[in-house]
Amino acid sequence: MSISTLALTAYVLVWPALVAVVMAVIGQAFFKEWKEARDSGQDIV
Amino acid sequence: MNDSSTVQFGAVTVVLLLVLFYGGTFWISRGIRKKKENADEYMTAGNKIGFGVSAASMTATWIWASSMYASAASGYQYGISGPIHYGLWGALMILFIYPFGRRIRTVAPRAHSIAEVMHARHGRSSQLMLAGSNVVGSVISLMSNYIAGGVLISMLSPFTFIQGVVIVAAGVLLYTLWSGFRASVLTDFIQVMAMLGAVAVIVPFIFFAAGFPAAFETGAGNLTPPQGNFFSSEAFLGQGAPYIAAVLAYAIGNQTIAQRLFAVREDLIKPTFITATVGYGAMVIGVGMLGVLALYLGFEPSGGDVNNIIPEMAASYLPGILLALFFIMIIGALSSTSDSDLAALSSIMMADIYGQNIAGKEKANPTTMLFVGRATMVAASAIAVAFASLQLNILDLLVFVGALWGALVFPVLASLYWGRVTNRAFTVSVIVALVTFIPVRFELIPLVGPVGLLVDILSAVGIAVVLGLMSFGFFGLRVARIVAAVAFLVSAPFVIGFLHDYATLSASLVAYAVSTLVCIAMSFRQKDDFDFSLIRKRTGDFDESDDDPQQPSAADDSLHLSRASRDGAEATDDRKDS
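Above: the input entities. Below: the structure tokens describing the complete assembly.
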């Protein structure tokens, strides 16, 4: 496999990987806020 | 539309998926439902939502179904750099408006819309220009998303286009109507998780199922030299540059973004905007890669319509379960933007029309406001469904709204920093910019000779304005002036005599340039300097029930905006000239 093919493969697949990271960050923050809201007896929004 | 080769789901399966999605979002919104909602929370959730919800909501709102379709179309048309020229600039605009967002929250911490801030800053005509542009923009956005929903449902199921439009509109209204913005932001979390999860799985799956990475070598002949060049100037001039000008205007002028800006806790604005920047960029560029893959594969979308690339790639390479996930992803994207548009429309009618212009701030009845907000959602849905069913070409309308917002960007931002900008300068500059924009955009006069030269010079000024504004937000006036001057001097030799051939880009830049030049010319000699602390006094809560005011932040304190000093301030009120 040539270098350009490898580079194109990385170029296409890096975005879904980044999406997964953002998903983890937002999800973690949301559930932390949800737990805090539940513990304090308030709505999350 | 119901080509037998593309129908992938039976009626029962689609109904189950839609019931799962809209039933789930309705169930979630019921969890926060109050018998008597607070009018301010209906519009901004009390200005105190956290990072997780706000980042999810900002990301979900900025991504609409058209973003994904257009990114893939850009990849298919312009090649490997195409999705970058759609997604990256759109993402960076979220980042570039962050400093302006901080400023807006500092001068008007408890406002509900930028139009309301302009009412406090200038008066009625400026407010109604912004509010009117937002109403038109949000109705068009609603219509566009309902059309996307109708097309998707009719393509992947036995249901007709009209049935699809009505199902989507009813589903969105169902979970948004009672709790308004609160329901919108909470359900955004679920919707963005579905969208992000789908992209994380579907793009790699299609990549390998379609025979990549080997197809990069076997299909390389399907690309023209510009399509295979990551630094293609054709892609930048045809897609990237017009989009930079357009999305800056959309980001500043669009109430759906402003509403989230007013809703998030003030100390969380920065991480929210950064996360939304990365989330939007990665997702939209990731989906756009399907267009690049389609190009390498020599894929021909049905009828040559590039909007069919994504659904047809999905239908061609995904198994049933992932196709269902794809279906939910698109429904989630269009629903999250639609519920944001409904919430934006309702807050404009509640705060800007009823609250500020009909009842007056002090006399506005919160119960009536809530009724106005809900009635607006129902009416807007009905109008959007009616227009969607006509399947109008919305491109011209979108261009017009984009230009209106482009003409508004400098006057709005200058009004937030420069005390000399008057209501008259604001209004006249926007109108003159629009009057100049229309003949350029629609080429009502031949752009040749001196006219073409003038358009090119104004376009170079427009480039300077756009880059200057971006720099100003982060680095201040001095750097912005240097960047604008350098941008003009560097771009002028390339732009003059050339750019008027790209009417869309030229017209947007002319709108920026003219509104800026007129606004500066009319404001420069003004001697009165507006006291920005008055904006805080003139905006704020309509509904004191169940109130939970935030403590002033350190940033607020630094501006010395204590209530005592505000109340005693003898300030210039340029609303007198409105």
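Note for the figure: Confidence is low (pLDDT under 50) at residues 1-5, 547-578 of chain B.
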